[in-house]
Each structure stands twice: as C-alpha cells, then as structure tokens.
What does this fold into?
Amino acid sequence: MDIRVDGKAALVTGASRGIGLAIAKAIIDSGGKVCITARKQDELDEALATLGSGAIAVAGGVDDRDHAEAAIATCIAEFGSLDILVNNAATNPQFGPLIQADPAAVSKI
It folds into this structure.
C-alpha cells in the first residue's frame, strides 16, 4: 500500500531509534516533514543524521507536559502545521494488572 503524506507535518514520540525512527523515516520517504522526540539529545542527533532534511528534533520526556507543549509549538513554528501525531513512546514502570498500578506509575504509561 502506498500512502503519501506530501506537505504534511508529523510529530513522532520515541523516535530516536527502533519503531519510532522507522515511522519517522517512512513519513519523510512519503513526502512529509517530521519532528521527532526522545529523552536523549545525542540519540536524537544521530537519528536526525539518518533522516536528513525535513526532520527536526525536540528532546524531552513524554511524561513532561511542558515538553509536549514545546514539541507541538516547535513543529508548528518550523513547518506551519501539525497534521499527524504518532504516540510511539512508551514505558512500563510497573508490571501487572493496571487496576493494581500505583497512580503515579499510570501517568508514565
């Protein structure tokens, strides 16, 4: 299936490696622009080197509301819009049934 996203701007969380990086690359290969996020700036820099033009990065954690707002604002300022959101970043701070999870841990999921 060939899906084009020409001229669209995407924000992909957890995109410094693995599935997130592959999604970001697919968006660029399909004509889009992408803002990637992850916690570590050095890993984002490596990812940007592989993605080439059309990609920007904002370092921070997805559990940080200020980071989320900054990533959105940066994407809109750089690309003029935010059309696609890929919530790829994840963590598993507690194993077991969600009903038994500590509320502080749930906010990180």
